[in-house]
Amino acid sequence: MSGYCHSAPGHPIHGPYHDSEYGFPVADDRVLFERLCLEIFQAGLSWLIVLKKRPALNAAFDGFDPARVAGYDDGDVARLLADASIIRNRRKIAATIENAKRFKVLQVDHGSFSHWLAAHHPRDKADWVKLFRQTFVFMGGEVVGEFLMSIGYMPGAHHPDCPVFAELTKIQPPWMKA
């Protein structure tokens, strides 16, 4: 095994995410929005930092409720920039707020963000990146790819020899059904 499947199992922080979240299908829009935001916050940093700060990020961003985050104003931005428990990057905070607004539009237009994703599946990574760049802000190839792998829309989250891969095979995430 290599990569995340080699280093994460048994790790006190990476292990639970690797074993029970990474690569598993997600339909809950709040969880989808959180994952998208976490990938933005991870850009240029280690995933370990993001996982360590995840509880604080959830608290600071009202559980990543897109409706609440979309309503954030300059006072909220100032509050977030002053919060030492989170990743304080003005561009990432602004992207999270702007993306919440765009996320809400997709929910209205498609019934849910989950339905929007399903309507565009399957695609190759380049087409997903193009779509996400047209739809959201702060969308690089790694952000989009990791987000889609984390929610089961793209392969690569787990090595075929990883025990979690066997679990995923049983539940057939979207990329396996394509």
UniProtKB/TrEMBL annotation:
Record-listed E.C. numbers: 3.2.2.20
Alphabetized SUPFAM superfamilies for the sequence: DNA-glycosylase
Keywords: Glycosidase, Hydrolase, Metal-binding, Zinc
Keyword hit for Methyltransferase: no
Lineage top rank: taxon: Bacteria
Coiled coil: none
InterPro entries: Adenine_glyco (IPR005019), DNA-3mA_glycosylase (IPR052891), DNA_glycosylase (IPR011257)
An individual GO BP term: base-excision repair
Pfam family, one: Adenine_glyco
Enzyme class: hydrolase
Signal peptide as annotated in the record: none
An example molecular function term from Gene Ontology annotations: metal ion binding
Protein name: DNA-3-methyladenine glycosylase
